[in-house]
Design goal:
Elements lengths: L1 E2 L10 H13 L9 H21 L6 E4 L2 H16 L5 E5 L4 H12 L3 E5 L9 H7 L4 E5 L13 H8 L6 E5 L9 H4 L6 E5 L10 E5 L14 H4 L7 H15 L2 H19 L5 E3 L11 E6 L4 H9 L3 E2 L15 H5 L4 H4 L2 E5 L6 H17 L1 H11 L1
Parallel strand pairs: 1-11, 3-4, 3-5, 5-6, 6-7
Antiparallel strand pairs: 2-8, 7-8, 9-10, 10-12
Protein name: Cysteine desulfurase
GO molecular function, one term: iron-sulfur cluster binding
Organism: Periweissella cryptocerci
């Protein structure tokens, strides 16, 4: 099996799974309990928090645990809206955000908030100038993803952050789910970024766990109230086994990060070089600094994305359409549509997403299978050409 769908989810690291199992078996006390067993659980919770903070170069108090990226995005957006509603009801985002951001914004619109959805260029990137032009006196939040999950475009977080230096009261949120282990730390943690959200299963931790960076001094309303965990900001008994496993997974994924990034980039480039000049192939990910090293999205003109995915699956290779969250809905990529990509190309787009565990030998096998499938689709290409005439 060749697994090239790492942007959807990664395989949990065996040592992270081992940590999860050991904590589950041996430290089952509630971190909020006063007895020694509860204190043992609390200490491990804070050790895990400190490890994550140290790895990211932030303060321990700036890390809050969540169930993953979707909760984190919802929390920042809705929590900001609740916290700052007295100061304004205008939010800014882009047309290419993850559904967790997009749908949260739409829900706020139903409650009377106003949202500006910024367009993107031919590479799927937002303009910092457009962000500045959209700011109003009542703007309370700018939410822009770090790396687009569909085509891998890196958003100009640094440029947007520079713009927002002149607007210190506006919250700046980065959905950083696709950035971990990709050499993008300095981009995500630009001095002006107030909130960044992360999902453990994107970097070999178990599913159902994540964390949020909240810059010291910033305020946000809780979405989950109850027992007052996470400094009374996110109630609910902490998922300690998953938190400890996530801390372990983050340390492992950041070990030798530069070497891993270069390996992923080389594998992606090998595939890209093979297919980029072929007729009826359109590349949406580019080999430049505006794109993350692990995502390659392309289309075979006239062949639906799900057909391509299942054709590769028959050869033991797992890729995806452009977003796992919407792939079963058989919808065209929202990012490609925002880029004004013709629908027949957007509906045929598929995504290869890599990880440090992938190898050049796997890329070579992918290329062999691609050639077989490409030859098999020649009748489709010919029909499309005849229909176009």
């Amino acid at each position: 099996m060749i697994y090239f769908d790492n942007s959807a989810t990664t395989q949990a690291d065996p040592t992270a799974v081992e940590t999860y199992s050991k904590v589950s078996a041996n430290i089952w006390g509630n971190p909020s309990s006063l007895h020694n067993f509860g204190e043992q659980a609390f200490n491990l919770l804070e050790q895990s928090r400190k490890q994550i903070a140290d790895l990211l170069g932030v303060s321990l108090s700036e890390i809050l645990f969540t169930s993953g990226g979707t909760e984190g995005d919802n929390w920042v957006i809705k929590g900001t809206a609740i916290e700052k509603r007295a100061f304004g009801k205008h939010l800014i985002t882009s047309q290419v955000e993850h559904p967790a951001v997009q749908n949260s914004m739409e829900q706020l619109e139903q409650l009377g908030f106003e949202v500006t959805y910024l367009p993107v260029d031919s590479e799927g990137r937002v303009s910092a100038a457009d962000v500045k032009a959209a700011i109003r006196p009542d703007t309370i939040l700018v939410s822009i993803m770090g790396v687009n999950n569909e085509i891998g475009a890196i958003q100009p977080i640094d440029e947007i952050g520079d713009v927002l230096m002149d607007y210190p009261k506006i919250h700046f949120h980065v959905d950083a789910v696709q950035t971990v282990g990709k050499g993008l730390h300095d981009l995500v943690f630009h001095p002006r970024v107030d909130f960044a959200t992360f999902s453990g299963h994107k970097f070999h931790a178990p599913r159902g766990i994540g964390f949020m960076y909240m810059k010291r001094g910033k305020r946000i309303a809780p979405l989950m109230t109850g027992g007052g965990q996470e400094r009374n900001l996110r109630s609910g008994t902490e998922n300690l086994p998953a938190i400890a496993a996530m801390a372990k997974a983050l340390r492992l994924v950041l070990d030798d990060e530069a070497d891993k990034v270069e390996r992923e980039r080389s594998i992606r480039q090998a595939i890209m070089d093979h297919i980029k000049d072929l007729p009826n192939v359109t590349l949406f990910s580019q080999a430049n600094d505006h794109f993350a090293p692990h995502i390659l999205t392309f289309s075979l003109d006239g062949v639906r994305g799900e057909t391509i995915v299942h054709a590769f699956e028959e050869h033991g290779i797992y890729i995806s359409t452009t977003s796992a969250c919407s792939s079963k809905k058989e919808q065209a990529s929202s990012t490609l549509m925002a880029m004004h990509t013709p629908e027949h190309l957007a509906t045929s787009a598929v995504r290869v997403s890599l990880d440090a565990s992938n190898t050049m030998a796997q890329a070579e096998e992918f290329i062999k299978v691609f050639d077989v499938l490409y030859d098999g689709f020649q009748k489709v290409f010919a029909k499309n050409l005849a229909d176009a005439r």
